[in-house]
Structures are given as structure tokens and as C-alpha cells.
């Protein structure tokens, strides 16, 4: 297992408020990692930094085997490097069909002229069908995604992430708004993905995290306070303190 | 899986058929080739309306599909007009000058013709030399290139600046409005080379076509405008019906998501903005030879707002909506403000349409925005949905 | 500095003025009428040559009624009764019969028909001489205003004799304003009429630092020059500078033209000269052996002309080398019209010093202009800073609210003629009217569109054109006057360079007042707190017991009402027309965006920057305000690229990320 993403000594503050404070984090390929922490621990800001939405004040973010910096790259460039992100609130193109949503996500050249002359090949078609089956939306392919249920939108967004075929997946609260069966299915899917990808899951739901059965990183006030198996971190006094209050 | 644009976008064959039918009707009613039920000036109005429809189509590309509400698109339209206007005016004036100088005992040199032409064109602003921007005005081919190039270049530079600093939404609208205001103020100055507020005039006289006459020219220009609109519609439909269109609509609805899918959003915006500006330039270049005159007032911010309003009234994000909006509103405006509409006598007050039309139009915008956010074309959806539930 | 120079002047004068004083004082005459009757012909048939005699007699008489007599005479309102030759005034020259009045006592003497009297009409020359004499009387008057009037007439038409008069006055005058005038006029007289350099240089130096227009008008003519040429620079001439042909100050063409005019070189042959010579020499369709049809290039024409020269049919054209040689044989120089180098040097130095000071005051004046323009932008934009900046509503009808405010002022003024009272009524009324218009608009239209900002733009644009047209239908399309009260009509003047109209000062004060009041409302009141709460998170605000509907309505009304007051203020100096709002709308949006959305302090900064910048650009290119506006907008567009959130940027969630 080699290191795919390495975040080192990163800090960022908004108007004097330190959202991320000297945070260091690394994940290899393949690996499944859960990031937990109370509200305001900096989980979303951490993802913003990795995906280029927020520039840190200090620190480094290194990517890939060559370990080159992501800090100078735009969001789109970082995405093309192979980092996919699912937002906390499902963001899909509600005005477009499920098929079109998946089609624009497929891993293909991203330039405007390639897009103009793009044709849906047999391979594309097959891949879309395959992903649709995976996320349980095979019979919804030609419906507008805006009329899907909240859980289905979550699925669709995960499907779009799959279509991108990234090396690292950042998944923010994938299980929100899902039934128990759907959660289990999601957890299984993420575990399966983690055999060949690096997957970072941010989640509040401890049951879901337990089911993921992976290494856990605990964030608090912008720093990592513990790392290890769920049982291990839950035994650490500081973590209990943070979660239960003093 | 038909990839032909006529199959992929159902509106294209219908639109082309309707457009062809209109062109046919106009031809049969025209003074030159038909019954003469239409006057020359009204034929020109119809041709100009088609050009406005083309500009509205371009507007729909950026606003309806990509969510960029440009309040400066008439700047591109006007620039297209100015570019072709420079050639029309130069060539026409030069012909007149040559005819005059032919009387002189010693034939004129090229420099003398050029000087006399410049004097004739620019004496109205107290100048006598060719300004730099008229450098290619003696060549039709280069002028036609400029019709596309200059608006495109302005859009490219402006768009590059605006999109890369991520100015969006109403801020971008205000910025585009500032752009068109700056351009019109620039053109209003007498010493900037485009004849200040005199503008360019006599554009209806096509050099070398004096023998053809306005009766036939008006129909020819109508055909050219219809052709441009038809081609523009097919091109726009092709653009928005494929993956490119999906991405544009994605940018409109959720820019961040598109960015995180790895698409360079700024480049897409720039491409569609520039393309749209070029289409507007072509529309303007066809419009002003029919209008006969162009001046900086045409570029004033209010014109661009009207363009946006036409698209909104017609219905955004569906191409034919923009065309319907532009055609309906601009033809109605022409009808009511030309004095053709009969006044209504209420006994105690006589409603003069010339006076009251702007009030109705303004309130009409409000009503459409409030009660028909999908525009006139949205009514089709309503009808279609009732037919197949 | 001024004092010592003046003291020197006084010394010079005593010598100069002595011979001009009247040598002897004659005994006072008994009565004016008698004096006049003694010289009746001189009065009745006064000519420019002879009038001075009777004037001297009258001046010597020192009678108190002489000034009035001279004024009446000069104004052609003096009459002579035909029956006895008595000089009289009449009560009203248009009445019939005329009422005759005694010139000394002012008593009514009776009436006479217009044929019974002769009106005396001194010609212009005589009037001038009388006027000069009256100056003497006026300068001796007890009324400072009359003395000032006398100074005015001296300044506009100076004479050598005035030197002594002014000199005398300087010794006795105590009024500081009058002294200041004398100190400017006296040197001008010395400079104009003195024969010696020393007093003139002293007079010039006494003006140093004086930035008044008349001081500059006195000095500038001394530095006038004339362009001349000669074989060598003449000795002893007062030469300003030597000029090189082909430089910016003197083109080769102009220099050679001078040579030609002096007969020192043959004229050049221009292209049009060649053309007319060729035309005159067309023989059988050829010129100089070249067919006419081929003469459509410069090169062919030159050949044909050369052929004509060879045949002695045309004068040879000097070649470029000839021209250079001719130009090289002489020197060109500018010679001062004033011969004395000491005088021109002193004038140059003094004027340079004055220009430096004038430059400083110009800058001050420009800064005041900039502040005034910024105040106007601020006033126009401040309402928008609330509706757009705080609430995020794009109100394209904002300009129409300004227009409605101005028309409210106009209506009030046509009902209440007293301008001060009408202004006092118009300002609150304009607020009320536009407040209600704003509330109505918010309730009827805008509240349905809070989540569709771009469509708000279109709907309010519709309202904007409808309002414009309705006002046009009611009031007509013509400009309506909105007259400022008298106390606002003038201007505040510091000196000849710096002055600013009172309306603009009032607008500055109003802008400052608005800023303070709004800042207090938004930051120090419950309403302000609720406004900020609703704009940042309406749902949360609602759950805290704030009624967002009410707050939105009030805020929008407040912003609109302020636009109305701004409209009254703007109407006082700009034209009140139905489409006046369109002049302000784009600038106002830019002001708010440049300053930074969401706080009125940003708007203040934005307005200052845009106003100041526009004035600065105008200063660089003063003839072209359109260009200044163009470049200002371009600057704003570029500025937004680098600070998309404006100068005063809010950060975090409030900025609408």
C-alpha cells in the first residue's frame, strides 16, 4: 500500500476563527477511512482544502506516487487528477435525466470541444447501465433526477462519483436520509470500492461507521485527536470527552 | 440512436418548417416577387425582426442554458453592425467620390480618392483622416471577418477577465451592463473614429447593387436573415442537445458540481459567451443594412435589457422560446408605436397606443415574470402535457 | 513683500503725480445754473475737444450737485428749455407734457411740451470724457460702493491721469476691500503708463503671489511674443527664445512659409499646385507629352511637371535640399513685444510664482469637485446600498424613485411658491411618496421573487419603463424646473480659482447626514438588527419572532424613500425629466458593487473612489467628460476582477458564498 494523499501541517482560519489547526492526514491506496468528529470539527473544511475549494494558510497537500502539490491547482484540475467528491447535501443536475447525469460524469476528456463532439459509444452505454444497476436506478434512467427521492439522489451522486472513476473518493455523509437497507447497501458498496480505491467517508452515524469496519480518524477543533480502529478510538478519554462533553 | 440534430431535438424540424413557410409567405406577398401586399419598409421590418430573433437566440444560449444573464449583448450586436457599416459607408462614399472626380480634367490618384472619401465621411466630426479602426473598411471580405472577430474578441477578453475572477450572478449582469455603457460612451465621442453620435448612415445603399433597387434588396435581406436564423437555430440546437448542452445546464444549475466533476467551468462559459457574441455580431451585421443607420444609442444599456426581457417573455432554455419572445414583443412594439393601432375612445379619455404601449409593455414584463416564469413557450408544455397525460 | 513694493511705488508716484495736480483753486461759484448759463454753448453743443473746458470749470466749482448733473448729462437726460435756455431735469422722459425740475434745488418748475424743450445728447466721445471726470468725483465720494464703482471703471478703461488719482486715494483709503483693489489696479497703471523700468519692475513684483484674474491679466500681456526671423539674432532685442524649424513649436512648413512671405525663398509647389498647373497645360489630351489618362499616379504627375519646367511653362519647385538650405540661412526667434528685459524677466518670475499657487488652488478646487461628485453618486446609490446591498434585491426602478422624488419637489414647488418652504415640505413628502411606492412594489412584486434575483431585475425593469412613461404622460417629456432657494443659489468662493456652488455644499452635507443616520439605523437600532438578521437567515430570524415580511417591507421602503429625498436634491442642480433616473442607475450599481455589498460604509468608499477617479481623469483630459466616464467604467470593470467583493468585503457566510 502506497501513500496516495498526504496532508501535512495544514491550518486555515476565517476572520480569526481557526477552522483547521495544524492538521495532518494521510491515506494510501487502497484504503477505507472514516472521519468522525462533532459539529464544527472541520470535516467539511478538510475536504474543501483537499479538493481546492479553500486554500490553506500554511501546510502542504501532496498527491500521488510522485507526491506533487495540489495547492496550486484549481478544483477542476484536482478533480481530473482523480479525486471525486460527494457533497453532504446531494447535488445532482435536477433538470436532467439520470442518464445524462451519469453521462457527463463518465471519465472522458473534459474540454469543451470534446464535449461538443462527444458521442455515446457502446462502451459508454454499457458503463452507464452497469452503474445504474449498481446504484439501483436502472428503471429510472430516463426520468429527471429532480423527481428522485432524497435517498435516490444520494445514490445517483455516488453513481456519478463511480462514473468519474477517481482514485480517491471523498464521501460526505452518504447515508443521510437512507433506510436501513439502503445504508447497508451503501456500506457494502463503499467497502467494495475500497478494495481498489482510496475512500474517505465523513459520517456522523456511528452504526454506519461501525459497519464500514475500517480505520477511523477523529477530528476536533480542526486537528486530529485520535486515529485507529473504532474500538480503539472510542476507548481514548479525550475522544469520549469531546463527544460527551466535559 | 439517431445522432442527427433533426432527430435529437424535435423542435428543429418544426422550427425550420415554420421559418421556411414564413419566408415563402413573405416572398409571395413582397412587392418585388409577389402580390405587393407587403410594403418595402414592412418587409425590412420583418427581416430586422428575424435578426433580433437571432440575437435573442444567442442570448438564450448564455442565459437560458448557461445561466449568465448578460446585459451587454447588444454591444456585440451593435459592433457587428458597425463593422459591416464601415465597409458599406466606405465603399458607397468612394463610389460617389469617384463618380464626381471623373469629371475633372486629370484623373485622380488613389490617394486623392481615399482622402476625399475620408473628408466626406469624417467632416461631420471635424476630421479628415482615416482613423485606425477603418483600416480594413475597404475590403468586404476582411470586414465580414471583423463582424465575427471583433465581437468575439471583446467577449473573449471581457469573459476571460470576468469568469476567471468568478464574478457570477447579478454581479456579472451589472458588469456586462457597465461594459455596454462604456462602449456606447466611447462611441459617442466624436474623436474616437466612428463619427460620434452621428453614427454610420446610408447603410441601406448596398455598393454595386444600386441597379437592383430596394424592392428586391429588401426581400434578399429577408432571405439572408431567415437563412442566418435557420442556421443559427440548427447550430444552437446541435450545441445544446449534446453533452456540451448538458454541461452548460449543469453550470447553470450547480456550477460547483460541474467543477468537481473536473470540467473547466470558466472555459465552457468563455466558449459559449464568445460564440454567442459572434452570433450577435452576425445578426447585427444583417440588421443594420436593413435599418439603414446605426448610432451609439443602439448600444445603450437599455437595448440589452430589452433583449433579455424578450427571452424571458418567450421562455428561457428552449431556443424557440427566445425566438417567439423576440418576434412577438418587437413586432407588437412596432405595431403599437408606429401609430397603426387604432386609438380607443373611452368617452372621457382617449387611449393613445403610442403613449400607453410602454406602460402596458412594462407591466407585461412584470406579469410574465410573476405568473408565467417559463414564458410564452411554457404554454406549449401546458398544452402538450394535457394531451398526453 | 507687497507692502515694501508698494512703498517704493508711492515714492515713484509722488514725483510723477505732482505736475498733474490742479495748479490753483478758484473761488466757489454762486450757483450751478449760472455757471452753466455762462458757458451755455459749451454745454449745449459739447464736442470731444471742447467739453474738457466746461468740465474743468464745474470741477473747480466744487458744487455738491455737480456729480448728479454730470451723471444726468452723460445719460442724455439733461434738457434745455427753448424759451430761456434754462438747463433742467425732467421727471419722466416719456411723459407728455414733461415735468421740469430745477437742477440745483430739485423743485418742480412747471410743465412743458416735448417741443418746448431740447434734450441734450452728448456723443460717445463726450460721454467718455464726462465719465472720466465723474471718476474723480466718485473716488472722492463718501460711499464705498461708489468708490468701488469708480475703481471698476478705471480698471476697464485706464488712463494716465488715473495714476495720480489712485495714488491720492491709497493714502486716505481705509476700507480694506478697496485698498486690495487699488493694490491690484495701481501696479497695472504703473506697468502700462510708466516710462522707466524700476517702477514697473517694482509694480510687477508687488503682484507676486496674487492669484486674482486681474493680476494675471496684467502680467500676461507683458510676456506676449512675436515670431520673427533674421540672418542672425539682433543685438539688444528682448528675445524670448530661439526656435529650431522642425521642432514642436515651429514646423518646417510654417518656418518655410515665413521665409516665402519675407521674399527670402521661392514658394514650394504643393500637390494641388502641380495639379492646377497640369490642368492649365493640357494640350491635345497630353501634358508635357504624357497622356492625361496616365496622370493618375503621383509619380506620373511629377514627370509631367518636370517636363513643363523644362519647357519653361512652370516655375521650378524647390527641392527638399533647397528648403533645408534656406531654413539654415536664417534664425527664427520669438521676440517679446515688451522691449525691456528687466520687465519681462520680472513678469516671468512673478507669473511663475503665481502659477504655482494657482496650481495648488486648482488642485484644491478639483478635490472639491471630486468630493461633490462623490456626494452625488453617494446620494444616488445610498438607497440602492440598502435594497441591493443589504437585501440583495436588484431594483432597476431605483432610478425612477429618484425621478419621482424630483417630481414631488416640482409639484410642491408649483403649489408653494416660497422656495425654502417648498423645499422643507418636499423633502419629507418625497420620502413618504417613494416610501409608499417602494412598499407597494415590494408587496406586489418583489416579495414573490426573493429566490429569483435575476427575474427581479426584469420585473423591476418593467416597472421602471412603465413609471417613466406614466410620468411622461402626466407631466410631459420636457424638463421641469426645480429652483433652489436664494440662499442655495449662489456659490461659496474662496478666491478667483476656488469656488463651489452652494447646492453642491448642501448635497455634501445631506450625503454626510444620510450616511450617519443610516449607519445609526442599521447598526444601533432594533430595526437594523432585525434587518441584518432577516437578510442573513430569514428562517432563523422568523423563528426568533421577527416578522420577515414586515422587515423586508420596511427596509425596501426605507431604501426607496431615501432615493426619493436624493431625487429632490439631485433635481436642484440636474434636469428634472422623466428619464433622469436612467442616468444614475448603472453608476449607482457600480458604486455599490465597487464599495462592497452589504454595508453602507462600502458605498461611501465606492462613491468617493468613483467620483474622485472621474474628476482625476477629467483633469488629465478636461475637454472630454465622455472619455472620463468611459475610462472610469473600464477601471471599475478591471477593479472588479481583482476585488470581486468590492473594497469593503464582508467575509464568511454573510457574503453569500
Structural summary, described in words:
The complex is a heterotrimer of chains A (246), B (389) and C (657). Chain A has 246 residues and is of the alpha/beta class. Chain A contains ten helices and ten strands. Chain A has helices spanning 43-51, 75-81, 98-105, 112-116, 122-134, 150-164, 180-193, 206-212, 230-234, 237-244; strands at 2-14, 17-29, 31-36, 58-63, 68-69, 83-86, 168-172, 198-202, 215-220, 223-229. Chain A has a six-stranded mixed sheet with strand order 6-7-8-3-9-10, with helices on both faces. A four-stranded antiparallel sheet of chain A has the order 2-1-4-5, covered by helices on one side. In chain A, helix 3 packs parallel to helix 6 (150-164) and helix 5 packs across helix 6 (150-164). Chain A starts with a strand and ends with a helix. In chain A, 43% of the residues are buried. Chain B is built from 15 helices and four strands. The mean pLDDT of chain B is 90. Chain B has one domain (5-387). In chain B, helix 4 (73-101) packs across helix 5 (110-122). The two termini of chain B are 25 Å apart. Chain B has helices at 5-8, 11-29, 40-65, 73-101, 110-122, 140-164, 169-188, 213-241, 243-253, 255-260, 265-291, 301-314, 320-337, 353-371, 378-387, and strands spanning 200-201, 293-294, 344-345, 350-351. By secondary structure, chain B is mainly alpha-helical. In chain B, the strands form two sheets. Chain B has a two-stranded antiparallel sheet. In chain B, strands 3-4 form a two-stranded antiparallel ribbon. Chain B is globular and about 75 Å long. Chain C has 657 residues and is an alpha+beta fold. Chain C folds into three domains: 2-76 and 120-204, no CATH class; 226-336, no CATH class; 362-581, no CATH class. Chain C has helices spanning 2-17, 32-38, 40-44, 51-61, 66-74, 124-139, 144-156, 162-172, 176-193, 197-206, 213-219, 252-261, 271-280, 298-310, 320-328, 341-390, 398-415, 419-444, 453-475, 486-489, 502-524, 526-536, 538-543, 548-571, 582-595, 600-620, 625-642; strands at residues 78-81, 87-90, 98-102, 108-112, 117-119, 225-230, 239-243, 286-287, 290-291, 331-336, 491-493, 499-501. In chain C, the strands form four sheets. A five-stranded antiparallel sheet of chain C has the order 4-3-2-1-5. In chain C, strands 6-10-7 form a three-stranded antiparallel sheet, with helices on one face. In chain C, strand 3 (98-102) and strand 4 form a beta hairpin. In chain C, helix 16 (341-390) packs parallel to helix 21. The model of chain C is unreliable at 9-26 and 651-657 (pLDDT under 50). Chains in contact: A-B, B-C. At the B-C interface, helix 6, helix 7, helix 12 and helix 14 of B face helix 13, helix 19, helix 25 and helix 27 of C.
Amino acid at each position: 500500500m502506497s501513500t496516495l494523499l498526504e496532508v501535512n501541517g495544514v491550518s486555515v482560519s476565517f476572520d480569526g476563527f481557526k477552522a483547521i489547526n495544524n492538521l495532518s492526514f494521510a491515506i494510501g491506496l487502497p484504503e477505507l477511512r472514516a472521519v468522525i468528529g462533532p459539529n464544527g470539527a472541520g470535516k467539511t473544511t478538510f475536504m474543501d482544502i483537499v479538493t481546492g475549494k479553500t486554500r490553506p494558510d500554511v501546510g502542504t497537500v501532496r498527491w500521488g506516487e510522485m507526491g506533487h502539490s495540489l495547492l496550486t491547482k484549481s478544483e477542476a484540475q484536482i478533480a481530473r487528477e482523480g479525486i471525486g467528491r460527494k457533497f453532504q447535501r446531494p447535488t445532482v443536475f435536477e433538470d436532467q435525466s439520470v442518464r445524462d447525469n451519469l453521462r457527463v460524469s463518465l471519465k472522458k476528456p473534459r474540454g469543451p470541444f470534446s464535449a461538443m463532439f462527444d458521442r455515446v459509444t457502446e462502451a459508454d452505454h454499457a458503463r452507464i447501465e452497469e452503474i445504474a444497476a449498481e446504484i439501483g436506478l436502472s428503471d429510472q434512467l430516463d426520468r429527471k433526477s429532480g423527481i428522485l427521492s432524497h435517498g435516490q439522489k444520494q445514490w445517483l451522486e455516488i453513481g456519478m462519483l463511480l462514473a468519474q472513476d477517481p482514485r480517491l473518493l471523498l464521501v460526505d455523509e452518504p447515508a443521510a436520509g437512507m433506510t436501513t437497507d439502503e445504508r447497508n447497501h451503501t456500506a457494502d458498496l463503499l467497502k467494495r470500492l475500497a478494495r481498489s480505491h482510496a475512500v474517505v467517508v465523513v459520517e456522523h452515524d456511528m452504526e454506519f461507521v461501525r459497519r464500514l469496519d475500517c480505520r477511523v480518524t477523529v477530528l476536533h477543533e480542526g486537528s486530529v485527536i485520535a486515529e485507529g480502529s473504532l474500538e480503539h478510538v472510542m476507548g481514548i478519554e479525550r475522544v469520549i470527552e469531546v463527544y460527551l462533553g466535559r | 440512436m439517431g445522432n442527427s440534430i433533426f432527430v435529437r431535438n424535435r423542435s428543429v424540424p418544426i422550427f425550420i418548417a415554420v421559418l421556411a413557410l414564413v419566408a415563402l409567405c413573405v416572398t409571395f406577398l413582397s412587392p418585388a416577387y409577389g402580390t405587393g401586399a407587403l410594403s418595402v419598409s414592412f418587409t425590412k421590418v420583418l427581416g430586422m425582426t428575424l435578426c433580433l430573433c437571432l440575437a435573442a437566440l444567442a442570448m438564450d444560449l448564455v442565459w437560458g442554458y448557461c445561466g449568465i444573464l448578460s446585459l451587454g449583448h447588444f454591444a456585440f450586436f451593435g459592433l457587428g453592425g458597425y463593422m459591416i457599416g464601415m465597409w458599406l459607408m466606405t465603399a458607397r462614399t468612394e463610389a460617389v467620390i469617384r463618380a464626381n472626380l471623373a469629371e475633372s480634367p486629370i484623373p485622380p490618384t488613389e490617394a486623392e480618392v481615399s482622402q476625399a472619401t475620408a473628408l466626406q465621411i469624417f467632416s461631420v466630426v471635424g476630421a479628415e483622416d482615416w482613423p485606425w479602426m477603418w483600416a480594413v473598411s475597404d475590403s468586404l471580405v476582411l470586414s465580414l471577418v471583423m463582424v465575427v472577430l471583433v465581437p468575439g474578441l471583446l467577449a473573449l477578453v471581457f469573459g476571460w477577465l470576468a469568469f476567471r475572477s468568478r464574478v457570477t450572478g447579478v454581479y456579472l449582469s451589472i458588469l456586462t451592463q457597465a461594459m455596454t455603457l462604456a462602449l456606447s460612451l466611447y462611441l459617442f465621442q466624436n474623436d474616437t473614429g466612428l463619427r460620434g453620435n452621428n453614427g454610420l448612415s446610408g447603410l441601406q445603399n448596398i455598393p454595386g447593387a444600386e441597379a437592383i433597387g430596394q424592392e428586391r434588396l429588401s426581400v434578399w435581406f429577408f432571405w439572408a436573415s431567415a437563412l442566418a436564423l435557420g442556421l443559427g437555430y440548427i447550430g444552437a440546437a446541435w450545441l445544446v442537445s449534446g453533452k456540451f448542452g448538458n454541461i452548460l445546464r449543469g453550470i447553470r444549475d450547480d456550477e460547483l458540481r460541474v467543477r468537481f466533476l473536473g470540467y473547466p467551468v470558466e472555459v465552457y462559459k468563455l466558449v459559449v459567451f464568445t460564440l454567442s457574441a459572434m452570433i450577435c455580431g452576425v445578426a447585427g451585421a444583417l440588421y443594420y443594412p436593413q435599418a439603414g443607420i446605426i448610432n451609439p444609442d443602439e448600444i445603450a444599456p437599455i437595448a440589452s435589457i430589452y433583449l433579455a426581457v424578450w427571452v424571458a417573455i418567450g421562455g428561457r432554455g428552449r431556443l424557440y422560446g427566445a425566438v417567439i419572445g423576440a418576434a412577438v414583443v418587437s413586432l407588437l412594439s412596432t405595431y403599437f408605436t408606429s401609430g397603426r393601432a387604432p386609438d380607443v375612445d373611452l368617452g372621457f379619455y382617449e387611449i393613445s397606443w403610442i403613449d400607453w404601449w410602454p406602460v402596458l409593455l412594462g407591466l407585461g414584463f412584470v406579469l410574465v415574470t410573476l405568473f408565467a416564469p417559463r414564458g410564452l413557450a411554457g404554454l406549449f408544455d401546458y398544452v402538450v402535457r394535457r394531451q398526453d397525460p | 513683500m507687497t507692502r515694501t513694493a508698494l512703498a517704493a511705488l508711492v515714492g515713484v508716484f509722488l514725483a510723477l503725480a505732482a505736475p498733474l495736480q490742479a495748479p490753483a483753486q478758484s473761488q466757489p461759484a454762486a450757483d450751478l445754473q449760472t455757471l452753466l448759463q455762462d458757458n451755455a454753448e459749451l454745454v449745449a453743443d459739447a464736442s470731444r475737444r471742447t467739453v474738457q473746458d466746461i468740465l474743468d470749470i464745474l470741477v473747480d466749482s466744487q458744487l455738491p450737485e455737480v456729480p448728479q448733473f454730470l451723471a444726468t448729462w452723460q445719460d442724455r437726460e439733461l434738457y434745455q428749455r427753448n424759451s430761456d435756455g434754462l438747463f433742467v431735469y425732467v421727471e419722466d422722459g416719456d411723459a407728455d407734457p414733461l415735468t421740469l425740475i430745477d437742477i440745483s434745488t430739485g423743485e418742480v418748475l412747471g410743465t412743458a411740451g416735448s417741443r418746448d424743450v431740447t434734450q441734450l445728447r452728448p456723443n460717445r466721445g463726450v460721454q467718455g470724457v464726462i465719465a472720466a471726470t465723474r471718476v474723480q468725483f466718485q473716488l472722492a465720494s463718501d460711499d464705498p460702493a461708489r468708490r468701488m464703482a469708480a475703481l471698476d471703471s478705471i480698471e476697464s478703461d485706464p488712463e494716465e491721469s488715473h495714476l495720480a488719482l489712485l495714488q491720492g486715494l491709497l493714502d486716505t483709503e481705509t476700507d480694506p476691500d478697496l485698498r486690495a483693489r487699488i493694490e491690484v489696479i495701481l501696479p497695472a497703471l504703473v506697468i502700462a503708463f510708466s516710462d522707466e523700468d524700476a517702477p514697473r519692475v517694482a509694480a510687477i513684483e508687488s503682484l507676486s503671489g496674487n492669484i486674482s484674474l486681474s493680476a494675471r491679466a496684467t502680467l500676461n500681456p507683458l510676456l506676449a511674443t512675436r515670431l520673427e526671423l533674421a540672418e542672425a539674432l539682433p543685438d539688444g532685442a528682448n528675445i524670448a527664445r530661439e526656435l529650431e524649424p522642425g521642432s514642436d513649436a515651429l514646423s518646417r512648413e510654417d518656418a518655410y512659409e515665413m521665409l516665402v512671405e519675407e521674399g527670402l525663398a521661392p514658394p514650394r509647389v504643393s500637390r494641388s499646385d502641380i495639379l492646377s498647373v497640369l490642368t492649365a497645360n493640357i494640350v491635345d489630351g497630353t501634358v508635357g507629352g504624357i497622356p492625361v489618362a496616365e496622370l493618375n499616379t503621383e509619380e506620373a504627375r511629377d514627370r509631367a511637371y518636370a517636363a513643363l519646367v523644362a519647357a519653361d511653362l512652370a516655375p521650378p519647385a524647390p527641392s527638399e535640399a533647397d528648403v533645408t538650405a534656406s531654413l539654415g540661412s536664417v534664425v527664427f526667434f520669438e521676440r517679446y513685444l515688451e522691449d525691456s528685459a528687466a520687465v519681462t524677466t520680472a513678469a516671468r518670475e512673478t507669473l511663475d510664482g503665481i502659477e504655482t499657487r494657482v496650481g495648488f488652488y486648482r488642485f484644491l478646487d478639483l478635490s472639491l469637485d471630486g468630493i461633490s461628485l462623490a456626494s452625488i453618486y453617494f446620494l444616488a446609490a445610498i438607497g440602492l446600498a440598502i435594497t441591493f446591498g443589504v437585501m440583495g434585491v436588484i431594483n432597476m426602478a431605483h432610478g425612477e424613485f429618484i425621478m419621482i422624488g424630483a417630481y414631488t419637489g416640482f409639484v410642491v414647488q408649483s403649489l408653494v411658491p416660497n422656495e425654502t418652504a417648498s423645499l422643507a415640505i418636499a423633502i419629507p413628502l418625497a420620502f413618504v411618496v417613494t416610501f409608499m411606492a417602494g412598499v407597494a412594489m415590494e408587496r406586489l412584486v418583489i416579495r414573490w421573487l426573493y429566490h429569483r434575483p435575476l427575474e427581479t431585475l426584469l420585473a423591476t425593469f418593467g416597472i421602471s419603463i412603465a413609471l417613466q412613461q406614466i410620468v411622461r404622460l402626466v407631466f410631459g417629456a420636457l424638463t421641469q424646473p426645480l429652483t433652489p432657494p436664494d440662499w442655495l443659489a449662489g456659490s461659496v468662493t474662496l478666491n478667483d480659482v476656488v469656488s463651489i456652488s452652494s447646492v453642491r455644499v448642501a448635497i455634501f452635507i445631506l450625503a454626510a447626514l444620510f450616511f450617519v443616520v443610516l449607519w445609526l439605523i442599521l447598526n444601533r437600532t432594533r430595526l437594523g438588527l432585525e434587518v441584518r438578521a432577516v437578510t442573513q437567515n430569514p428562517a432563523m430570524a422568523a423563528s426568533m419572532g421577527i416578522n420577515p415580511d414586515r422587515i423586508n417591507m420596511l427596509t425596501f421602503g426605507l431604501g426607496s424613500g431615501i432615493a426619493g429625498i436624493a431625487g429632490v436634491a439631485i433635481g436642484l442642480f440636474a434636469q428634472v425629466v422623466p428619464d433622469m433616473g436612467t442616468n444614475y442607475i448603472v453608476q449607482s450599481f457600480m458604486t455599490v458593487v465597487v464599495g462592497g455589498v452589504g454595508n453602507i460604509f462600502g458605498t461611501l468608499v465606492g462613491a468617493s473612489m468613483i467620483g474622485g477617479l472621474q474628476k482625476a481623469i477629467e483633469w488629465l483630459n478636461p475637454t472630454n467628460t465622455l472619455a472620463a466616464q468611459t475610462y472610469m467604467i473600464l477601471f471599475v470593470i478591471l477593479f472588479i476582477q481583482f476585488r470581486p467583493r468590492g473594497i469593503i468585503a464582508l467575509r464568511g457566510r454573510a457574503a453569500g458564498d
